[in-house]
Amino acid sequence: MDSDCMRSRAAAMPTPSSAFVAAAAAVVFFFSLTPSLSDEKISEAGLSCGNSSSSAAAAAPSLVPSFVRDMESLSQLMTTRHFATRVTNSSPGAAIYGLSQCRRDLSQTDCLLCFAASRTKLPRCLPSPAARIYFDGCFLRYDRYDFFAEAVDPVYDSTNCSSDRGAVGEPAGEGFAAAVGSAVGNATRAAASGGGGGFGVAEAGGVYALAQCWESISTEGCRVCLEKAEMGVRKCVPSGDGRGLNAGCYLRYSTVKFYSDGGASEADHGSSSTGITVAVVLVAAACIMLSVFAAYACYARVLKLKGDNIHLRKISIGSSLNFKYETLEKATNYFDHLKKLGQGGAGSVYKGTLPGGKVVAVKRLIFNTRQWVDEFFNEVNLISGIEHKNLVKLLGCSIEGPESLLVYEYVPNKSIDDYISDRNKIQILNWKQRMNIIAGTAEGIAYLHGGCKERIIHRDIKGSNILLDENLTPKIADFGLARCFGPDKTHLSTGIAGTLGYMAPEYLVRGQLTEKADVYSFGVLVLEIICGRRSSSFREEPVSLLQMVWNFYKSDNLVGAVDSCLNGDFPAQEAWNVLQIGLLCTQASAAARPSMVEVVQMLTCENVAIPEPTQPPFLNANASGPASSNRSSSMSSFVSRAARKINASYTSSESSSMRSANKRSSSHEVLEK
Predict the structure, then answer these.
(1) What's the whole-number mean pLDDT along residues 9-25?
(2) Most buried among 132, 339, 553, 654, by the most CB within 10 A?
(3) pTM of the predicted model, to two decimals?
């Protein structure tokens, strides 16, 4: 790997061979144990990801930071109780409501374990503004409206009939059905009664049942919820296990006793015994694994002395890119919100001052899931070894603290998106500044595509990722979604990642990634900079930016699309040329788009001919007249299918959004599978 940060991380981790030996030893050890240490209380019983309303969907980009704050608050509350609710207001109209509850018979330790497991899995639903997850020991939900008193939900309430325990057949079937009815009926009545407090257990004929209502609903709501759940689980017979998963309650029956009669006190005792067993097992396993690691370390040392293991020698080199977590924490005044420069899907960026006085930007990652880890190392590995005047320079990283941090050069003038989105137009970029930004960005992308040692596709070229330094020199940032592109490859087949409105149609629909995807995104950016208007496929306007520029082009009045804030102070021919280049880059056919090297030549050389563009892919119909209606309808269908594909792919992400939930609340980003 190119970066010292990667070497440091590699040095801290076992090599594949050592990991294999250690894993083998651990497997042998654990399989030699008789008792099972699995705990079905943290088994997932159901997960629902849903859109609560169209208005909630519109606010999805601001969801991630709110979700994180909501979960952190719930975590703090759940340390001492079995039930908690929380409302987080990130901005007006963007509140997020969270609720968590454990079964009453669980110990506090088991409750925390269950909550931690549910919190880990719930982000699979992001960026959906609503989700709920049922474990056999707890429940967790977030939504954009106050659902705390909601007892039933006709859309998402469900019944889970499992045959894991085996089905009961004739002639015992009728007796079993009666036992199920008696057990769930008694548990339901106990929970719904005024003295039950929303919790009840019962046993009848070898069938065990448990009913639990959330503490936020009324006694009447509890009764309504459990009655609906009871009707559902009765239909699970002859399955040996059934669960009712409703908005306000949880009901389960099983042929195996799965709850504690003595409540939390008895569960605490059982948890303590299990904890001791687990501790003994883990200590023994750790000793064995440490012995294996030590043996392998000696073996690796011998290879190193013989000069046979060059990789390990590289790992041992001191890292100039490695920052101590404490240093960066102090540099940002412990991540003071006043130092915050921006919020992205992967995390927040803070301004920091190092001990020597150097000002830096510190990117603080939010999650520690595999998706974010992959993205972190992808970014470090790709850009630590390359330098260009139009690329943001990576200064280092920290991997030793509770969260991973990236350290970049500080770029003071924010992003080009801030200037385009500034409705008050406090600072207007003149024509020369806009052209310098466009040309510099083109040179940076061209360098990624062929000037550095590996071909790199950025995949998320847009205004908020083009930062401006003190001289308004553009610097491309945020390489979390970038991909290496081998010289022998014609394209990469990959999950969709990026920002809707900037993604090329062939990539959005078929997942085929080439350098021409970046070219398309760059073309959209060019039109935004020149026209002073953002492009968004979600804009409630009759004519999109692409359509508007194309209409000006067809009417032989391309300069009419130039930002009116310039008051005509620009060279007309140059404006025509650069807008024509933007249209060339956004053509529907990837093959028809120029390469970034050709784009740089067209932007910087006066004698280079600029070809005539063909019609770009429109994202809504009726704006360009009858001639384009068929294509518009087809593209709208493509976008619909792509949106469904994106939704499906989100549940098990590879990489911005969400990498990429956007840095700005008005952008809509997508994460990769």
Answers:
(1) 40
(2) 132
(3) 0.51
